[in-house]
Every structure is written in structure tokens, then in C-alpha cells.
Specification:
Blueprint: E1 9-12, H1 18-31, E2 37-41, E3 54-57, H2 66-76, E4 81-84, H3 89-95, H4 97-101, E5 106-107, H5 112-119, H6 121-130, E6 138-139, E7 153-157, E8 167-169, H7 172-181, E9 185-189, E10 195-202, E11 208-220, E12 223-230, H8 233-245, E13 252-259, E14 262-269, H9 276-282, H10 286-295, E15 312-314, H11 324-331
Parallel strand pairs: 1-2, 1-4, 2-3, 4-5
Antiparallel strand pairs: 6-9, 7-8, 7-9, 10-11, 10-13, 11-12, 12-15, 13-14
């Protein structure tokens, strides 16, 4: 077998995902593999741009020039793999897959239909039910009689991301207010917890390589700040079923919340989770596995569910201090 001697990966909307890019850097070293980490964002001060080999500024996702700019970056940097890091990027990349993959890049992005399903929390709930998985009771606002429901409830946007506009509702007055305030809302029964995010690692052909579950102890800005790895056979089995049904392409996360000892499945994010580095440290080494598969390098992948449990994550703030010249260097990478 002939191995590829260089694999270049591109991450969209890198933002604060420094730990993830560093995990890929370590994987390159472990595999003795050459390659560049290409990172794009709309903000020259995005921290993760500072740890990329090839940082680029790109137009906003809604700009007509976004895809043509991304295509040119893929061509110029000979990109092999593309990973989205925020939810809004996924349907846009899926829609323009043919244009981007014409450069030789392969997109770790689900189909447009799967992207729509994951993005619409109402559709996601029905998807879980069709798979026979426990999920929260859910309603659209017009389906609820405020005086006949049991509080608390939970409300969120059907197309939400990063926990924006999500609220716990304790009364009929709050239900009336938040049903108007939250854009296009879906209302769910309140699940007491704990809340679990599972990182599901699949290859581009949908093959499930690993699953690792993380209990979210503390969350900031929709991303885990404190957490620990746990193992639950029901969750692992459900994640495999979800991956096959989507079907999955590349890494994604599944969220569930426990009620009376049973995991109730709530959301799918078709991308690397914000807490994915904890799973890597626990033994589900997704960057190394994905790079090895892309390069046709043999890699040993442990049996499903084999990873270190009760491994804790606690995050802290760090800083890059940049000069005007540093910022101009990133700005200068704008095509």
C-alpha cells in the first residue's frame, strides 16, 4: 500500500477552538505525517487562527463570495479534508459540496437533508422517535394550553446553536413571553439531568470509529467548561443507531439528558463538539484516526466504548497577545 506523505486539513469558523487544532498538531507528530492546518474565520482576532499553519480571513457565511473564497483556499493549499466547527456552516458546505470537492478536498459534512434534520430541533425530536429512542415531549407554541401543562418547561429555537435563546419556563406568564421572544421556538418538557454530550467519530463512509460520552458539569456560552467522561451502554448503542440513520459523514455529537435513569435524546450537532479534546485525552483519538485514514496509514482503533472514564475537564482562559503586525499578517491572508 502506498501512503500519502502529506495531508492538509481545513477548519471553518475556527473561533476559540485552539485545543482541537493542537490535538491535530499532536496527531501529525505521532503519525510522522506531513501536512498543514488551514484555518478560516471572519475575525482576525479569532484565537485559533494563531495556531494554524495557514490562517485566512473569509467573507461572512451569507456573503455571495464565501464559497468562491473557500474554493480558492482549498485549491491554493491543496486541502484534503474540510471540517466545519459551527452549526451554520454545515448546510452551506453541504449545498456546495460538488464545488469544493472539485478541488480535490473531501468534506467531512453530512448531506443537505441530514444537515436540515440536525439544524431543526423539531425535526430532530421526530427523528429520535422514529428510531425508537427516548426523547423529551415537545410542542410548538400553538399546541400548548398554558394552564394545562406541568412546569417547568424548556424552550429553544428550532434552528438554534450555542445555547442561544434557551430558557427554563416556570409559569404561564413566562411561557407567553418566551414564546414571543424566542425565534421560531420549540417547547419541551424539562429534563432534570445530568446532561451528556457524546462525541461520535465516523469516517467519510459513515463507519463508526468511536464514541465517547461526557457529562456536562458546567457550560459557558454553550460550550462545556467543566465535564467528565462517563460510560453508558444505552447511549453508545443509540449513537451508533443515529450515525447509521443520518447517515453520518465525519465527527458529530449527540446530546441527551437523563430522566429517571433513562437517557432522553435531545439534539444532534453534525460537527466536532466543543469538548472533543476531553474525548481525545480519554482515548478516543479522533484527530489521529482521521488523519491516518486520510493518509492510508494503518492505525489501531480500540473496541467501541473502550476509553478512560471519570476523566475530568476543567477549562481556564488563556491569551494571545498580538501586535498590529501580527493582526496585519492574518488580514493579509484575505484572498
Amino acid at each position: 500500500m502506498v501512503y500519502h506523505n502529506q495531508i492538509n486539513v481545513l477548519f471553518t469558523s475556527v473561533g476559540r477552538r485552539v485545543e482541537l487544532l493542537r490535538a491535530f498538531r499532536k496527531a501529525y507528530q505521532q503519525l510522522d505525517l506531513e501536512g498543514n492546518i488551514v484555518a478560516v474565520d471572519i475575525d482576525p482576532l479569532a484565537p485559533a487562527l494563531q495556531v494554524a499553519d495557514c490562517p485566512y480571513l473569509v467573507p461572512c457565511l451569507t456573503d455571495a463570495a464565501y464559497i468562491s473564497t473557500l474554493k480558492e483556499i482549498c485549491r491554493r493549499e491543496k486541502v484534503d479534508l474540510v471540517f466545519p466547527l459551527i452549526d451554520p456552516d454545515i448546510p452551506v458546505l453541504a449545498q456546495h459540496r460538488a464545488i469544493l470537492e472539485a478541488t480535490g478536498a473531501r468534506l467531512a459534512v453530512v448531506s443537505s437533508a441530514a444537515a436540515a434534520l440536525a439544524n431543526d430541533k423539531w425535526q430532530t425530536t421526530h427523528f429520535f422517535r422514529q428510531l425508537g429512542l427516548p426523547t423529551a415531549h415537545a410542542w410548538l407554541p400553538h399546541e400548548l394550553e398554558a394552564t394545562q401543562v406541568q412546569y417547568p418547561l424548556f424552550i429553544k429555537p428550532r434552528g438554534g446553536s450555542a445555547a442561544k435563546h434557551t430558557y427554563t419556563i416556570h409559569s404561564a406568564d413566562e411561557l407567553a413571553f418566551f414564546s414571543r421572544y424566542v425565534p421560531d421556538p420549540v417547547i419541551e418538557e424539562f429534563l432534570p439531568g445530568p446532561e451528556i454530550t457524546s462525541d461520535v467519530v465516523t469516517w467519510l463512509d459513515g463507519r463508526v470509529l468511536g464514541v465517547v460520552s461526557r457529562q456536562r458539569i458546567e457550560v459557558r456560552w454553550g460550550e462545556v467548561a467543566k465535564g467528565k467522561t462517563i460510560y453508558d451502554a444505552q447511549i453508545i448503542s443509540a449513537c451508533v443507531k443515529i450515525a447509521e440513520a443520518l447517515p453520518a459523514v465525519g465527527p458529530f455529537t449527540v446530546q441527551c439528558i437523563f430522566k429517571e435513569g433513562i437517557p432522553h435524546f435531545t439534539e444532534i450537532n453534525a460537527r466536532f463538539g466543543g469538548g472533543a479534546p476531553l474525548g481525545v485525552w480519554a482515548g478516543v483519538d479522533s484527530p489521529r484516526w482521521l488523519l491516518a485514514l486520510a493518509a492510508d496509514i494503518p492505525v489501531e482503533i480500540p473496541p467501541l466504548g473502550e476509553y478512560q472514564t471519570n476523566l475530568y475537564l476543567t477549562r481556564f482562559d488563556d491569551s494571545f497577545v498580538l501586535s498590529e503586525k501580527d493582526i496585519e499578517t492574518v488580514r493579509g491572508s484575505h484572498l
